[in-house]
């Protein structure tokens, strides 16, 4: 599990030292920086597929990624602490502004400390001057210059970070991938926008039937008109549509994704994500409540709490209804103070008296928790 992030100089985050738990829900006003922490994990998604430079370019280069630009903040640093069954792994990186507004690694380092040995092992450098992470450069890692311990540590950290996934199911327009035919074999994992939902559900229907049935039954609990998906290759055997049928309707009538509301479509993607058989190591979801009915949000909250016993979850939300279903230990309040994003985890003991009379969502609305707009 990712236990802690220390981050400096990234977007609106001048300096952050954040402890993470199995379920972490970010709340705060618009523009305070919740989405910037989400962007940090998006950057790692690109980094683990050797596309860091592509991410930097698409994000507006160094000036857009460094705190108040490269002139004020010429570098960003990040240290991540992971716990595994055998010990604590640390990954550290320092990215610096370089020619033409790009960012390169000034330093990249790793360490592993066994629970059986007292104290933390020192960081071992993977070098500097490179444009893409050395973790995904097997030619570098598996050389005589890198010790076997560090090779193993690099392999473990890489394996963990490659199983982080960031999701935002906001695009349900007529051209969205989720509403259009998709390549049937694109089913290894659910994509960030659920564009391959039909293919992903189809392979689950064929190979993991109990999980598929639970997904369908959970969707039915929120949308009673829904009977089941109709998943089969189209006239082109390489493509599949997200078709479905209505409960109590004409058995011969088949509906398509364009005949679902945006909220229902997002709900289907969320339920599939959280109830799949092989969960990502870390699930990051940006504003999962978009377009959802309050009852659907309460179902979502229950799923988040349940699944957090199996994997780690980070969620950014504006929903009072969602917060009402959670406990203080789940909540991280994000505020904007002194022109920077500040992340603060709620203290359960401090709120005990308040919670005797008010719900957590009500306390947020009353600005007892923070995370409300400030002038």
UniProtKB/TrEMBL annotation:
BP terms from Gene Ontology: DNA synthesis involved in DNA repair; double-strand break repair
Record-linked InterPro entries: AAA_GajA/Old/RecF-like, ATPase_AAA_core, P-loop_NTPase, RecF-like
Cross-referenced Pfam families: AAA_15, AAA_21
Molecular function GO labels: ATP binding; ATP hydrolysis activity
Limits of the Endonuclease GajA/Old nuclease/RecF-like AAA domain: 1-45
Occurrences of domain ATPase AAA-type core (ranges): 257-324
Domain of life: Bacteria
UniProt name for this protein: DNA replication and repair protein RecF
